[in-house]
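Standup notes
- DV: blocked on the single-chain target, sequence here:
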Amino acid sequence: MSPRSARLARLSRSVTFSACHRLHSKSLSDEENLKLFGKCNNPNGHGHNYKGCVARLLISLLVSLQIDPVSGMVMNLTDLKEYMQEAIMDPLDHKNLDRDVPYFAEVVSTTENVAVFIWESLQRLLPPGILYRVKVHETDQNVVVYKGEEAKAG
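- DV (later): unblocked, structure below
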């Protein structure tokens, strides 16, 4: 394969942010929330050092995922860093998710919903069809992967 042939690549970048939240659904009673969320339902909240990883992968043959033969890049990492700053760090880092992030005023701030928030925020900034996966580590043991709206298999 010559260097000028189309080559595809994955590109990922990680960031870490700190935030606190309370797992609490307005649709449930206080007792039901405590039973469902346990200590994570503490009225004063609890904190995490979240690690977010954004990855792009070929879904179909999209020109934007090909390695540019001139620059040798799929995407400029400086641009990706700026997008992640705007979509993740600025709205979430050192914030109380439930009180400081309008998205979570009506949405329970589970890690699953944090991943959706990040996905939706990045989708507004990145070229269409380029985002493949958002992976959020709440702890070393708890990880959520979100790939946008996917139909349930079955």
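- Follow-up: Confidence is low (pLDDT under 50) at residues 55-64.
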